[in-house]
Specification:
Length: 106
């Protein structure tokens, strides 16, 4: 597995801002990304991912925003917890129903 380098949010924001500011000076956004990525020390693909994420968050490009992704993750976790709780309650209910049937009549 490759070593992952963690970049600070400030570096990410600055790199993305540079791409937006300088893409008109290049023939395409990709060439601007390649140029800036080499200057800040990350791969062009990493910077492209940051640019795409920013475009989605700003509504420039279609897709699920970062806040929507976080909300979806929270809801999925809550859903798993509720399913687990329901399963526990269903088993407890079946256990007590069986115990009631096994009890001797007075």
């Amino acid at each position: 597995m490759k070593n992952q380098i963690s970049y600070s949010p400030e570096v990410r924001e600055r790199a993305v801002r540079l791409v937006f500011e300088h893409q008109k000076e290049h023939e395409s956004q990709w060439s601007a990304i390649k140029s800036i990525a080499s200057k800040i020390g990350c791969t062009a693909e990493t910077l492209r991912t940051w640019v795409r994420r920013t475009e989605i968050d700003q509504g420039i490009r279609g897709g699920m925003s970062t806040s929507d992704r976080a909300r979806l993750k929270e809801l999925e976790q809550e859903n798993r917890e509720l399913k687990r709780a329901n399963e526990i309650l269903r088993k407890a209910s079946a256990y007590f129903a069986q115990a009631e049937l096994d009890r001797r009549p007075k």
